[in-house]
Amino acid sequence: MDWSEGRTKTPKILVVDDEGKNVKLLSALCENLGYETLAARTGLEAIDQVKRHMPDVVLMDVMMPDMNGFEATEKLKQNTLTRHIPIIIVTALDSRKDRLTGISKGANDFLTKPIDAEELALRLRNNLQIKQYHDFLKNYSITLEGQVAERTRELSSAFEKLDTAHQKISAGYIETVYRLAVTSEYKDEETGAHIRRVGYYTRILAERMGMDQEYQNYIFYAAPMHDIGKVGIPDSILLKPGKLDPGEWEIMKTHTSIGAKILHSSESPYLKMAEKIARCHHERWDGKGYPAGLKGEEIPPAARLMNIADQYDALRSKRPYKPALDHEVAFDIITKGDGRTMPEHFDPQVLDAFKNSSEKFREIFETHKDDVLATKWEI
Hints:
This protein has 2 domains: 12-143, 3-Layer(aba) Sandwich (Rossmann fold); 188-368, Orthogonal Bundle (Hypothetical protein af1432). Helix content is 58%, strand content 6%. It is α/β, with parallel strands linked by helices.
C-alpha cells in the first residue's frame, strides 16, 4: 500500500546546523528534491522549531553550541508530541561509538558529511515513508475512534430500545399473570387477598434466603398462580362448607395438575416458574405430599417457598370449613406441628427463613387482609 496516497501538502524538512553554509547547502538540496525547508542554528532552536512547525523530517547536526544534536534528539524523542518525527543525524563523525550514541538517543538514521545528494534523497524518502505511515495510522486511529464512538452510540440506542421492548414484554407477562390469577378470585371470593399476599410472602422468603433480585421478582408474580387449577374444580367441591369425602378430596387434589397444564409451554419466565409452583406447591419435604409424592430437593425451590407461604396464609384465613387463626397460633403450628401440619413437611432452610421473617408475614397479612378484587396489579 502507498501510504502517501492522497497526501496534498509538501513535506517540510528542518535543517539544523550551526554553520550557515551547511544550512544553505542542505536546504538547497532538499528544495531541489521538491521539499520545503526550515532552519535552526542550535539544539534549543531546533526543539522550538519542531514544536512550532512540526516538520516531517529533521536533519540534525551533532556539534553545536548550548545543546548538541544528540541532546536535542533525546529531548524531541522524549516528547510524546514530537517523538514520531524521524531524525537523521548529519555528521562528519563516522565512529561506531557515535552511531551507538545516536541510536541510544532515538535517532532514526545517519548521513555522513560530505553530503551525497543521491544518498540524501534516498534517506529522506525512506524516512518520509515512515512518517507518512505513522500519520496514516494516527489518522486511521482517529477515524476508527470516531467510528467506534458512533457505533457505541448506535448500540446504546439499540440497547435502550431493547430494554424498552423488554420492559413492555415483561409488563405483558405480568399482566397475563394478573388476569389469570383474577379468574380464581371470581371462582372463590375468599382467595382474592390470599393470592396477593402469597406473592409478598414468597418474595420475603426468597430475599431472606439470598436469592437474587430477578428471582425475587419472578416469584412475586408467579406465586399468585399457584391455585389457578381450581378453575377446573366443581363449585360443589370447591365451596363445600364441610369436610370433603375421599372421592371429593381426590378431585380437589387435581387442581395442581390442572394448573400446571394451563401454564405449560410458556416462554415467559414468570409462567415457567408459576407452572412449577402450581404443580408442586402441595409436595412435602418428607415425601408425603401430592400429586407426585416428591421428596426433598426433588421439589422445585419456588414450590418449597410457596408451600410454607400457602400454609401460613391458609391458617390465618377464614374458610368455609375453618375459622381464621391468629399469627402466634399459625406460627406454632408450622414450627412445632399439630398433627396435620408438621415441621418436617417443609424444607428446613425455608422453615428457618420463615422463622426469621415471621414478623414480616404478620405485617403482610394485616396490611392486605381486606384486599378486594383489584382492577390493576402492581407492575
